[in-house]
Amino acid sequence: MTDYMVTQQWGEKRLDIHALASDLAPALGAQLVHDESEHYRGRLEIDGLRLCLSAVWGARSGRVKVSAYDPRADRLHYRSDLQRIPSITLDATRPIDKLAGDIKRRLIEPARAIVDQVTLRLAQQAHDDAQLLAHAEALKARWPFLEVKIGADRAQIYGRHNGGYFTGSMRADGGVRIERVDTQADRVPALLGVVFGS
After folding, report:
1. Which domain holds residue 71?
2. Is this model's pTM higher than 0.85 or not?
3. DSSP assigned state of 40
4. Are 153 and 192 contained in the same domain?
5. pLDDT given for residue 10 in this prediction
6. Taking the CA of residue 36 as centre, how many other CA atoms within 13 Å lie in the half-sphere pointing to its CB?
7. Is residue 129 part of a domain?
């Protein structure tokens, strides 16, 4: 069994997190991620998950904290309600195969549901983004003077033409939220008829 505790030049012992990560990679079937800037963390990738290993300091030195996240979640427009994957803390003095088994059972396997959730959300987001773009292009084709700026999940619409002014936002389904309209009096009945469907 490998001892991952090393003595530093001032006599204090610390966990060699990079050596531990290097040994865990094949035991997990994961890929080691090299990052020269990460002196106190080790990173692994497995099945779309990014694992981060960090040493626990102080009275609990010799233990390792392992956290996981799906890097694809960074591409979601909104993810504040996405369930977080709880981190786990393990005794780094245990055999490497035991550590790998614990990480799989306590971290990787429970994270599958969140990975699936990210996959579904990204697919829905791609569909919505395509719909939004199509609706925006249709508006521009019909009224070329409009300025349409596509954002994360909606498009902002601005227009000034022929005595009228309009600002609003459009959702992926093509619905529009009117924020401001300035128009001539004789156009008001037609405008309200469009808004209220009568």
Report:
1. 5-124
2. no
3. S
4. yes
5. 66
6. 0
7. no
